Amino acid sequence: MRKKIVAGNWKMNTSVEEGILLAKQISFLTKDLENGVEVIIAPPFTHLAGVSQVLKNEGGKVHLSAQNCADQLSGAYTGEVSAKMLEDVGCKYVIIGHSERREYYGETNETLLKKIEQALSAGLSPIFCVGEKLDERESNRHFEVVAEQITEVLYKLKGFDMSKVIVAYEPVWAIGTGKTASSDQAEEMHAYIRRVIGGKFPALADDISILYGGSCKPSNAQEIFAKENVDGGLIGGASLVAQDFIAIIKSF
Ligand code: 13P
Predict the structure, then answer these.
(1) Contact between residue 248 and residue 207 where contact means Cβ atoms under 8 Å apart
(2) Is residue 235 lining ligand 1, measured as CB closer than 6 Å?
(3) pTM value > 0.90
(4) 127: containing domain
(5) Average pLDDT for residues 220-249, to the nearest whole number?
(6) Helices within the chain (DSSP H only)
């Protein structure tokens, strides 16, 4: 069964104290939520232990994600954080392949596959991001680019592992720009992503949650989430303001 999911990617924002407060607010405001949406927050690494404790104390309705993990199991990899460490601290999810990681840190499809494999073997569900850049959309290559991101990484997984993956479509031109994909553009790409997944995993395609990300906010979430193939959102800026994040969650 496809899950409805709203995930907040805090990126490199908030002090630990601010993050703890934000997590408390989000937990409190989602306590009576009954629309079946799985709520996830992805704070920076330094916040995970503290936020994990808050989420446990508040009853565990909000789930914890990291924003990245190492592509290796353990050992001499200075500065890296393993998937197992994330699982230890209470994460259930990890974002992998965000366009900011692909672009600023040179993460390739090969690295991303290793990260997904590490996440899965540690028991985490990867939130795998795909999406085209502006010039790729303008030159009408967006379908081709997204298909390649999927076939080069997700096609290499076994079906059992694929069933744990969440896909996030984040057109790079819509991230942090205030420019959202229209609900029709989102639906068109989400339906396409589902077809591409079906090319390798026909029995799973219908059950994979595909989230939209890119300037999603309270004013546009409802229209986007109403589309048949949009199963929720990966929210950046608006997830840093508890009331906005809650309003997006309640848009379902
Ligand atoms: P914004 O919602 O700030 O555009 O960010 C989207 C995003 O990159 C979530 O991962």
Answers:
(1) no
(2) yes
(3) yes
(4) 4-249
(5) 98
(6) 16-29, 48-57, 83-88, 99-104, 109-121, 134-138, 142-151, 159-162, 183-200, 218-225, 242-249
Catalytic residues, which ones?
Answer: 98, 170
Query: In 3D, which of 239, 230, 233, 152 has the Cα closest to residue 191?
Result: 230
Q: What is the 4 CA–ligand 1 centroid distance (Å)? A: 18
Whole-number Å distance, alpha carbon 97 to ligand 1 midpoint, is: 13
* Residue with token string 């699982």: 87
The residue nearest atom 2 of ligand 1, judged by CA position, is 236
Alpha-carbon span 162 to 154, nearest angstrom: 7
pLDDT digits (tens, 9 = 90+) for 17-70: 999 999 999 999 999 898 999 999 999 999 999 999 999 998 878 999 999 999
The tens digit of pLDDT for each residue in 85-125 reads 999 999 999 999 999 999 999 999 999 999 999 999 999 99
* CATH code, 191: 3.20.20.70
Ligand 1 in contact with 44 (CB < 6 A)?
Answer: no
Domains in the chain: how many in total? Answer: 1
Q: If you measure from the C-alpha of residue 212 to the centroid of ligand 1, how many angstroms do you get, rounded to a whole number?
A: 9
Closest ligand 1 atom number to CA of residue 176 = 4
